[in-house]
Design brief:
Elements lengths: L6 E6 L2 E6 L6 E4 L2 H21 L19
Antiparallel strand pairs: 1-2, 2-3
Pfam families: UPF0150
Protein name: HicB-like antitoxin of toxin-antitoxin system domain-containing protein
């Protein structure tokens, strides 16, 4: 069954940090956004395998991200 996860990318000194909103333990870094996306997909696949091997419940993706404007 296919599940969608919401990713958050943050610009850092070394490039980008990627993390899943629905599964915060899945986190990685890449030199650019493209590499970070690939690394995050790989980290997610590895985490799914690890959870299955340990018979742990896999968090299902269901986040909704919304930007809220504020005047500063």
């Amino acid at each position: 069954m296919l599940h969608n996860y919401t990713a958050k990318y943050t610009k850092i000194d070394a490039g980008y940090m990627g993390q899943l909103i629905d599964w915060p333990d899945v986190i990685t870094e890449g030199q650019d956004l493209e590499e970070c996306r690939a690394m995050l997909r790989d980290a997610l696949n590895e985490m799914v395998l690890a959870y299955k091997m340990q018979n742990q419940e896999i968090p299902l993706g269901n986040s909704l991200i919304e930007q809220l404007p504020v005047e500063i």
